[in-house]
Specification:
With 410 residues, the chain is mostly helical. It is built from 16 helices and eleven strands.
């Protein structure tokens, strides 16, 4: 038994030991925080929290933190995030803002504008009416109906779908849309993949788009999709969305992505190297949005190792928000940005694709939408049947296994 005179001294020593332990722990944590940011599951929470904080009073999210320029594609991705997370009201705020201008946007020449103001919800009427952005907005509206069962925005859904179909050429490809002074005179692979994913309720038109993609855009020797009707090179999103929209059997496009677009660069904001993917060939930067697309595509095809690897690289690219305390995110690029703030301000699409990969969520997957199996069957009959002159014979590209796709002539 301890001497009564010694006991108070031991108690004080134990108390001092606890104080010193917590002081050391606090100091170590502070030093660690200076070198790293939040990791693991906490990232998901803080990235999603940034998206919530980024939504403006009019309902729209600006593309970047600290700016008011807002994109249709940006807000489609944000709406998909909100819906998947159960924040239906936040998605509805985006849709309501767009609905205020739907009558204008769906009259000739048609299409929602590419850019808007997050400050007041007004469109930038001098910007393009691009099929890709409109298709992504339709994907978000489709997902809203699938998640809620509500028909509140069916007028916009039908209006956008009919506009996209009105731009479909006789070869099945969809023209790019409209610029301020006229029609876009090319067909983009990216834009047509978007349309293919969006037109889940229009199987015949969808089948024609797929036929154009495989017959005209597919380069079998390199197992990739070219950028469009005027460019033979690929862009990264042709490869990632080729998998996401057309299905896991196209996973081999990701091998070409790794061979042609993968690089390791110095990330200025974090002062260390990051490995990821550029957006175009011969670009000396990592496109963080696109790297999220790659991670999401690997998640979709079931390659957990690759998914985890690129998610870890994205988490090494997280920076703290300057506007919303306790939240984190990524800019569009690591370095050499295409606009002045592209490597320094947190960027909505980078957040969205990180979350899609983290969640295992592919918004381009037709199985997410009602009656998708029936529509797919109808589509197969439309493409592979012999009932009309535009059908592809059974046993050709769309009706056969992957080796047949690889063996087609260009």
């Amino acid at each position: 038994m301890l001497n009564q005179s010694v006991r108070p001294i031991l108690v004080r020593l134990r108390s001092m030991k606890r104080v010193l332990f917590h002081l050391v722990l606090f100091t170590a944590s502070s030093l660690f925080a200076a070198e790293t940011v939040w990791s693991g599951p906490d990232y998901e929470i803080r990235v999603y929290g940034w998206l919530q904080s980024q939504q403006g009073t009019c309902g729209l999210l600006a593309n970047e933190e600290g700016d008011s320029l807002s994109g249709l594609y940006t807000n489609a991705l944000a709406a998909l995030c909100f819906l998947h997370h159960g924040d239906v009201e936040r998605a509805e705020r985006i849709f309501q803002c767009m609905r205020l201008h739907s009558a204008e946007c769906l009259q000739a020449p048609g299409g929602f504008y590419q850019f808007w103001s997050a400050a007041n919800g007004e469109p930038h009427r001098d910007t393009d009416r691009w099929i890709g952005d409109n298709a992504w907005f339709l994907i978000a509206l489709n997902y809203y109906k699938a998640k809620t069962g509500k028909t509140d925005y069916d007028d916009m859904r039908e209006g956008i779908a009919r506009w996209l179909i009105s731009l479909q050429d006789k070869d099945g490809g969809v023209w790019g849309g409209y610029v301020a002074d006229g029609h876009i005179e090319y067909k983009s692979t990216e834009g047509n993949l978007d349309c293919y994913a969006a037109l889940v309720e229009y199987p015949k038109e969808r089948a024609k788009i797929k036929r154009w993609l495989i017959h005209d855009m597919w380069i079998p020797k390199e197992r990739r999709l070219r950028m469009g009707s005027t460019v033979d090179e690929s862009a990264l999103d042709d490869l990632t969305w080729g998998v996401a929209a057309l299905g896991p059997r196209y996973h081999f496009t990701l091998k070409y992505a790794e061979e042609a677009f993968l690089q390791t660069v110095h990330f200025d904001q974090r002062q260390h190297e990051v490995t990821g993917f550029s957006d175009f060939l011969f670009k000396n930067h990592v496109w963080l949005e696109g790297t999220g697309q790659v991670a999401a595509a690997y998640q979709y095809v079931g390659n957990k190792e690759k998914t985890a690897h690129y998610l870890a690289e994205l988490e090494r690219s997280m920076i703290p928000s300057q506007a919303f305390e306790g939240t984190y995110g990524m800019p569009c690029f690591t370095n050499n940005p295409r606009w002045s703030t592209g490597a320094s301000r947190i960027f909505v699409p980078s957040q969205a694709w990180y979350l899609f990969a983290k969640w295992g969520f592919n918004p381009m997957d037709a199985s997410l939408y009602p009656s998708a199996a029936k529509l797919a069957e109808t589509q197969a009959q439309a493409v592979c049947g012999s009932g009309n002159g535009s059908s592809i014979a059974s046993g050709s590209t769309l009706c056969s296994a992957v080796p047949a796709i690889e063996g087609r002539s260009r």
